[in-house]
Write a structure and sequence with these properties.
Order of helices and strands: HHHHH
Number of domains: 1
CATH topology: Four Helix Bundle (Hemerythrin (Met), subunit A)
CATH architecture: Up-down Bundle
CATH superfamily: Nucleotidyltransferases  domain 2
Helix content: 55-70%
């Protein structure tokens, strides 16, 4: 079976672009979710590039489970992104109000920046000769 790591990374980059587009349109909840998805898919791409399967949606755990070390600061940023997986999409995730009322530019800027750092970490790791880059 073909290694699909590059496909996962390409989709991660597309999701990051979607996060930026959603932010520009004022859809900050979607920007946060798309940023979370970008980071998750990028880390899964690296798992695949390293010959591993990865399941789940907790980016911090996915980073920790890599056979290459991710900086603790990057794991902490992943924890921020992990908080955007469900509550950005579900109307009952907050005590009241729809998700779009709970997210603004501050959150989407942070989410996009953190996801970008994780995607870049993955790009650099996948470019290394030992990962087939």
């Amino acid at each position: 079976m073909a290694n699909r790591a590059r496909d996962w990374l390409a989709q991660a980059e597309q999701d990051l672009a979607q996060a930026k587009a959603s932010q520009a349109e004022g859809r900050h909840e979607w920007a946060c979710f798309a940023a979370q998805q970008a980071a998750e898919k990028a880390v899964k791409a690296l798992h695949l590039a390293l010959g591993q399967e990865a399941w789940g949606h907790v980016i911090a755990r996915l980073l920790k489970d890599l056979p290459v070390a991710a900086a603790e600061e990057l794991v902490e940023k992943a924890k921020v992104l992990d908080n955007f997986y469900a509550p950005t999409r579900y109307a009952n995730a907050h005590p009241e109000g729809p998700p779009f009322e709970h997210y603004g530019r501050l959150q989407s800027e942070e989410a996009i920046r953190y996801a970008g750092e994780i995607v870049e970490f993955v790009r650099l790791q996948m470019a290394r000769p030992e990962t087939g880059g």
